[in-house]
Write a structure and sequence with these properties.
By secondary structure, this protein is α+β, with helices and mostly antiparallel strands. It has one domain. Helices cover 24% and strands 16% of the residues. The chain contains 3 helices and 5 strands. The strands form 2 sheets. The chain has a 3-stranded antiparallel β-sheet with strand order 3-2-4. The longest helix is centred in the N-terminal third of the chain and has 15 residues. The radius of gyration is 16 Å and the shape is globular. It starts with 8 loop residues before the first strand and ends in a 16-residue tail after the last strand. The mean pLDDT is 86.
Amino acid sequence: MERLRVGDLTAICDRCLTPIPDGGGVLEVDTAAADRALRRWRAKVGTDPLAVFASTPGTRAVPWNTRHHSCGRPPRFPCTIAVERIRTWPGLLHWGSHLAGKYWLPATDWHDLTVRAVEPLRAAVSGILPAQPRDPHDGPIGDRPQ
């Protein structure tokens, strides 16, 4: 059995719902699907510089997926992050900054993935999650209980 490294964040496989050890899996998105979604959206909204993908009715973000290497196959054109490279808050911030330059990022659920990692009431059963979940009664990140 592979050992899990303790970090700020943990990766839970979307397929089998078990933790992913270092070297054992990835966080990935299908960039071709994101490109297609973005092109359909742009055809719908035109050149409006104030249009926002996530706020447009009828759009569906392409999901980021966490999976063991043995659980499923990668998309044909993936953007892949090894789970060991995103186990810390600075790692998540680094990847968010790096991905911000990708034109297809707004057509993915990256924003939702990061919100689920920091907001205890929005947490999911799989994905990139805090290794030590926060008490939902403590409020959002930055709020201090009285």
